[in-house]
Amino acid sequence: MTDTTPATGTPRFRLGFLTHVQGRGDDLARTYRNAQDLFVAADELGFDVGWVAQHHVPLGGGGLSSPWTFLAHAAARTTRIRLGTAITVLPLEDPVRLAEDVATVDTLSGGRVEIGVGSGSDPTEYAAFGQDAARKRELTTEHLRLLRQALSGDEVRTPGFRIQPTPGDFESRIWQGVFSREGAAHAAAAGSHLLLNRAAYGYDEPTDAVQRPWADAFRAGWDRPRAPRIGLSRFVFPAKDRRTALSHIGDDVHRAALRMAAHGAFPAGLDADEALRRFHSFYGHPDEIVTALREEKVLPVATDLITQFNPAVPDHDAALRALELIATEVAPALGWKPRARTEPAGV
Question: End-to-end distance of the chain based on CA atoms, in angstroms?
Answer without folding.
Answer: 16
